[in-house]
Amino acid sequence: MSFLDVLYFIIPSAIFYAAPLILTAIGGVFTERSGVVNIGLEGIMIVGAASSIIFNLMFADQLGKLTPWVGLIVAMIFGIVLSLILAVAAVSLRADQTVSGVALNLLGLAVAVFTVKMIYDKGQTDSIAERFSRFDIPVLSDIPLIGKMFFVDVYATSILAFVVAIVAWFVIYKTPFGLRLRAVGEHPLAADTMGVSVTKMRYIAVMISGALGGIGGAIYAQAIAGNFGASTISGQGFMAIAAMIFGKWHPLGALGAALFFGFAQALSVVGSSIPYIQDVPAVYLHILPYVLTILALAGFIGKANAPKASGVPYIKGKR
Amino acid sequence: MSKRLVNILVPLISILLGLIIGAIVMAISGFSPVEGYVALWNGIFMDTYTMGETVRQITPYVFAGLAVAFAFRTGLFNIGVEGQLIMGWLAAAYVGFKFDLPTVIHLPLALIAAAVAGALWAFIPGLLKAKLQVHEVIVTIMMNYTALHVANSLIGTLSGGDERTPKVQETASLRSSFFESLTDYSRMHWGFVVALIAVLVMWFILEKTTRGYELKAVGFNKHASQYAGMNVNKNIILAMVISGAFAGLGGAMEALGTFENMSKLHGFTGIGFDGIAVALLGANQPFGVLLGAILFGSLKNGGLNMPSEAGVPTEIVNIVIALIIFFVASGYIIRVVLERFGKQRKEEK
């Protein structure tokens, strides 16, 4: 296998594994920018994965090729519903955000597996018939070298992930909404004084993260896993949080970090058939994203600063 | 209404609300809530076997709860209990099968190895927090996944490519034929005694030693403690290390008592995360943690009986536990309601 062949092999699968991480990480950027820590992204991804798979199994006959896409919307709705629980607890009831996020993870997994067992009488669903399929992008795929790396066998979901990241960058940095969002996360008191509703902004941000986390989970389930069980989503939500931090709370940074983590995941899956990499014990590739995140936080890879008010409930009138 | 009474009422009301919503969920899903909860009750108290298993389930929860609570008291949120527990489990299992020693040395050695492994795993986030102000929540989460993969890989290496480590020697086991005969061959073991001792140790450290006073002081106000001449950084690291040692001992309970070995894990045990619930419910007090562990351990073990007896998936118990955490965490609203209620009563008088 030549070096180029390795690239042709590994880059598409890296992007493939990264797509769910990108979307969920962008969701994390939105909440944290508004000052709410969302540890519950894992639970949201689980619910998104479960709801999309159940929907897919039920309606594949009627909807055919469209099923996975409608499944994304279903997952988005369920993700928003779950995230609202966090919003109510953490924003309105001033609950500890990390604790409620942990509870959200427990709840998401429990509800998802409970529902699956109730409907199918077993812990794991059958495999879905309608998956996301891949295609070659016309014209672009004919570009020598790059074409075969980036534009052959592309999943539409990967394109969606890139588009969402760019849109998120535009929304957060180039629109009045984004300015308010960031203001609320850095200095809620000042934002409140200027007439920005802290509660409203935080609710919207948490719901956006619910929507994107749900979609992320659905993409993982419908493109990578193909079914749903208790261990379908195992750590992808936390890896997305890691990508968000590694990307320094910036949408495009998160995109880059998620791509890198996708690359690590792809390596650990397909690495056994690639020269040199097959000699590296798989455990190093497994722990790479997590260790890198710790190093990033420790400031070895440039200092990462969280939004100032992140994790602190805003209580009106309190200095 | 006195503050003390409200502090007791908040967890009680949360438990009640959790169970009520659990019943509603069962009713909506087409199960009978009464049958479900009877099955849950039977799964906890039906016979000596189930009671022995319930005690077995409670034991690691005590340690996980103590670990989370201890860190909380110094103002640290140790989500990494899960990872520290895994490392402790592995260390105890390794020492347990590797050495040939008399019980009086072997068993304590295995327990100490577990505590040290957990403490080391918690030392890293503690050090990063103290020296570089890195938030411990994210670091400990990342350490959890690292622990999972590292442990799985090490189990393969230690056992020569097997899926599980060899059984621990009898000299390191916490099992006893006395409990087996008493509880109809349940997996109940001496660990609960170790757990009770751990509760007393935490109480003693926090309430009766200067170091414990400092740890609590740092938890209340870092800057005031610094001003009073306490070494805040040292206390942060120490709190994490002690917390990790408790978590590691929780792993030892699994290694030396419940399973007597360690198999490769497909996912987290969940004990560490449930420890957050235990600590929260027990208001981070050692004896509160004991009560919280008894409740959640019983719920977890009783839930295993629900599918066979009432046809309800076990996960309903996890739903109830998650809801209880939400309600305790959102204690603010319960407090407001209670205060209103208390005021109205006063006016009527």
Automatic annotation (TrEMBL), chain A:
Q: What is this protein called?
A: ABC transporter permease
**GO molecular function annotations of the record:** transmembrane transporter activity
Q: Which InterPro entries match?
A: ABC_transp_permease (IPR001851)
- Which locations, inside or outside the cell, does it occupy? Cell membrane
Provide the topology term for how it sits in the membrane: Multi-pass membrane protein
Has keyword RNA-binding? no
Name the keywords, alphabetized: Cell membrane, Membrane, Transmembrane, Transmembrane helix
The portions of this protein that span the membrane are 6-27, 39-60, 66-90, 102-120, 154-173, 203-222, 283-301
Name any GO cellular component annotation: plasma membrane
What top-level branch of life does the organism fall under? Answer: Bacteria
The answer on whether this UniProt entry bears the keyword Cell membrane reads yes
UniProtKB/TrEMBL annotation, chain B:
Membrane topology, as annotated, equals:
Multi-pass membrane protein
Major subcellular location class: membrane
What residue ranges are annotated as transmembrane? 12-34, 54-72, 103-124, 188-206, 236-259, 271-296, 316-338
**Example of a GO cellular component annotation carried by this entry:** plasma membrane
Q: Which GO terms describe its molecular function?
A: transmembrane transporter activity
Please provide the record's keywords in A-Z order: Cell membrane, Membrane, Transmembrane, Transmembrane helix
Q: Would I find Cell membrane among this entry's keywords?
A: yes
Which Pfam families does this UniProt record tie to the protein?
BPD_transp_2 (PF02653)
Is Transmembrane helix one of the keywords? Answer: yes
Compartments (UniProt record):
Cell membrane
* Protein name per UniProt: ABC transporter permease
